[in-house]
Each structure stands twice: as C-alpha cells, then as structure tokens.
C-alpha cells in the first residue's frame, strides 16, 4: 500500500507532497494521519520553511467523498479526518516555520483550506480554486472560515463560499487568494526559489513577524505596538541580530543560524 504523502527534509527546508493522484489527493483518514505526522516530523527537525504541493493533475480536490460514502458512521468519519488535520494546522500556525502552498489544477474544499492556511501561495496558471463544501452538503473545515474573510474580506468571502463559482488563477491573484501566478512548468522551480529565500531569513524575526501579522486581528493598536516592541527586544538580544548588524556594516550577506 503506497503512502498518501511524501515528506522531504533538506536542512532548513521541508516539502510535503500529497501523493494520491488517482484520487486527486483527496484527504482520507490515512492522509490526515500522515499529514499530522509529517508536520510534527518537519517541525521537530527544525525546518524554517515548509512547502505543500500535490502530485498528479491536482493540488487537492478536498475530502475523500468515496471514504464518506463507505463509512457506516459519517460523523465519526468526519472526526477521524478533521481532528488530525486541525491538530497539524494548529501546530503549523503556532510555529515559527513559514509555509508556502504550491497550487496547480483543482484546489477545492479542504485543498483550498490548506492553501489559505499557508503563509504564502504560488499558483500555476492551471490552478482553479473552489470553496466546494456546500456542493456536498457540508459547511467548511480546516480553518477556511477563519482565513478566507481575513484574506479577501467578509463580503467577498461570502460570495466565494455561497455563490460557488470556481476562481481561476488570474482572478485568485486579483482577489489576493494567491501571491503570484506562474506557468505550470515553472511552479516547482519558483516554489523552491522562494522557499530558499525565506529559509535565508532570520528565523526568530520572520517567525515573530508571522505571529504579529496574524495576531493583529485580535489586538487593538496599543496592544499591537506593545507586542511589536517586545518582539523586537527579544530579537535584538539574539546572535542573529548581531550577525545582521555585522553583515550590514561589512557589506556582505548575513548568515543566520537561528540563535
């Protein structure tokens, strides 16, 4: 039996590749458990950047409807799939690691949830984004109702979810659902280039910035000012900050170690 995803680790870089191409990488129980394990392994290994991609002609077509059709207890099936996905996504969100989604072909349902959970997203020209949940009689999962209105605003989020039309890559870029659109043949190369660039940042500073941006929605202005000050002070005491100062005055690239 083949594994539903592959994890590749290379120093500060990690890659999770969903690998159920015959099912358009749809999430079943095995995939959800494997995703939770892969995220834990990558973070425990200290990766600074983790990319998410899909093998075959899709990034991900959502949850595995065939698994739900076979299940005798469909509520229990939902719990068994969603719970490990939620734990993995929560751990990623709470970590300093940066995530990049590399999207191509169908990006639907839980696939869209994963794409929006990532810190950045590159889309191939073939990518087509679909909310898709209501079409199968379900509301949402994997954090999409948190991410979608924050990315595009409440009114547009409601339109994407309720009106239900697929969003092609160019429109997804215009609406802020993805950061950049590239030719399909260039997606993996551009994703690797971006991941390497992000991995070269000071991880304490980039991780703190990630949390400041996400947490800003729950803070008022004064609390944000204080949070920024505290994060800056913490980073100012690190070896990476000292290295950045030396590199700046010596006119050379900084070499960050995460210390």
UniProtKB/TrEMBL annotation:
<dbReference type="GO" id="GO:0003824">
    <property type="term" value="F:catalytic activity"/>
</dbReference>
<protein>
    <submittedName>
        <fullName>Enoyl-CoA hydratase</fullName>
    </submittedName>
</protein>
<comment type="similarity">
    <text>Belongs to the enoyl-CoA hydratase/isomerase family.</text>
</comment>
<dbReference type="InterPro" id="IPR018376">
    <property type="entry name" value="Enoyl-CoA_hyd/isom_CS"/>
</dbReference>
<dbReference type="Pfam" id="PF00378">
    <property type="entry name" value="ECH_1"/>
</dbReference>
<dbReference type="InterPro" id="IPR029045">
    <property type="entry name" value="ClpP/crotonase-like_dom_sf"/>
</dbReference>
<dbReference type="InterPro" id="IPR001753">
    <property type="entry name" value="Enoyl-CoA_hydra/iso"/>
</dbReference>
<dbReference type="InterPro" id="IPR014748">
    <property type="entry name" value="Enoyl-CoA_hydra_C"/>
</dbReference>
């Amino acid at each position: 039996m083949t594994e539903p995803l592959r994890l590749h680790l290379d120093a500060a870089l990690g890659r999770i590749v969903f690998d159920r191409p015959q099912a358009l990488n749809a999430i079943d129980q095995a995939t959800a458990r494997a995703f939770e394990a892969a995220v834990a392994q990558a973070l425990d290994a200290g990766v600074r950047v983790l990319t998410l991609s899909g093998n075959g002609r899709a990034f991900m077509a959502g949850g595995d409807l065939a698994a739900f059709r076979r299940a005798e207890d469909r509520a229990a099936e939902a719990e068994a799939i969603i719970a490990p996905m939620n734990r993995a996504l929560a751990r990623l969100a709470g970590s300093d690691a940066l995530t990049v989604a590399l999207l191509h072909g169908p990006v639907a349902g839980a696939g869209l949830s994963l794409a929006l959970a990532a810190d950045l997203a590159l889309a191939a020209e073939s990518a087509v984004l679909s909310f898709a949940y209501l079409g199968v009689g379900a509301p949402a999962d994997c954090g999409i109702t948190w991410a979608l209105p924050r990315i595009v605003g409440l009114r547009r989020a409601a339109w994407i979810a309720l009106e239900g039309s697929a969003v092609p890559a160019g429109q997804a870029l215009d609406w802020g659902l993805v950061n950049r659109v590239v030719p399909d043949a260039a997606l993996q190369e551009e994703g690797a280039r971006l991941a390497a660039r992000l991995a070269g940042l000071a991880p304490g500073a980039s991780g703190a910035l990630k949390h400041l941006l996400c947490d800003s929605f729950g803070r008022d202005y004064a609390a944000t000012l204080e949070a920024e000050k505290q994060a800056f002070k913490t980073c100012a005491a690190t070896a990476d900050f000292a290295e950045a100062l030396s590199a700046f005055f010596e006119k050379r690239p900084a070499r960050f170690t995460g210390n």
